[in-house]
Methylenetetrahydrofolate--tRNA-(uracil-5-)-methyltransferase TrmFO (Lutimaribacter marinistellae), 454 residues
Amino acid sequence: MTEKLHIVGGGMAGSEAAWQAAQMGVDVVIHEMRPKVETFAHRTGSLAEMVCSNSFRSDDDEQNAVGLLHWEMRAANGLIMSSADAHRLPAGGALAVDRDPFAETVTNRLKSHPRVSVTEEEVIDLPEHGHWIFSTGPLTSPALGEAIAKATGADSLAFFDAIAPIAYAESIDMNVAWRQSRYDKGDTEEERTAYINCPMTRAEYEAFIDALLAADKTEFHEGETAGYFDGCLPIEVMAERGRETLRHGPMKPVGLTNPHKPDEKPYAVVQLRRDNALGTLYNIVGFQTKMKYGAQTEVFRMIPGLGEARFARLGGIHRNTFLNSPTLLDEQMRLRSRRHIRFAGQITGVEGYVESAAMGLLAGRLAAAEILERPLPPVPQDSAMGALIHHITGGADAKTFQPMNVNFGLFRPVDGLKGGRRGRKDRYKAYTDRAKQAWAAWLDSCAETGVEPA
């Protein structure tokens, strides 16, 4: 076999796609423009660099859809999950990782694979021949974006994604703040104390909201609109939706007790999550922002415990592009007008590290099976993977299509179970049990075709 699989973009999706295809016996070339061509958000030339949060979110595979996706990727011998597990940090019930060693591990494993090569170049056109996966993510270059729009006959959509700031742990006042995971979640003391919490009185919260609303914000370029993804809203946008919005979102005070003032319930709480293995960096949870740098420092130092905080990174904002996938992609993630080209990752309209890697996993397997001329069985819709791919390739309404995290709302109902909040625990467990069974059966079917990754 001489046909190669070309993958454009070495983020979560591209890295996972390359690994899966190479493990199936296909030669892979990763085309990654960094570090020759830089982006607003990236700092290095490593593959699978984490540019926003360092969290893969919940690792609960029985009651959480993203935790179920973790389970499915581990069952499929995914590179992203094995690398994340190798560099795991305490984060309560979440899977957080030490971002730099994680990216270095992914990079080293791919570059040392005998069937993988990496070339540092920017691809700006859609090729006419060959086997290709485009996983260029939310920061797809303008030139390539224009080529995609020209080839599809439709403009790619755009939204803005904001990055949360990171503070140095030593600059946080622990006489005011305290360590505790919400509801003391976790099996070890380290897990139960994975977050740093900064309490606010009502007066402090009101003053913070006033400052947030009045702060200087980043201006948009002409012709751009602020079509934010609801799962990653800048805090000032949330505040504009109502003064209590943040207190019922990332600043909710539930499940926490301040040991400095155990008899006084905070009106709001700002949480910081550990961002590296050394425990020297903490990111402010849910505090994506488009405030200007000077305003950020001033406003964030109003938070009790952060009065003298020093920041390793301040927040920022950038434009994310994604396809109207329900109209453009078929059930195998191929461009309908050019079936030798697949898309994977955030550019398809999934949101999040895990979801992006998951779509890369499927794209890599599907492309490799096509090259090997051993088609795989359809991805089961009752799995988390299947629910996502079904959503982006036809399950979503194309007229209102927006980026989506995996969630149980994408799953087909289980017969005989109650709806509503009271039946939620049993319903979620039924979803995950059914999904695991479907996914395990699919992996077995893949193995029977003779193209299961080694």
User: Anything to note?
Assistant: The domain at 5-156+323-448 is CATH 3.50.50.60 (FAD/NAD(P)-binding domain). The chain has two domains: 5-156+323-448, 163-319.
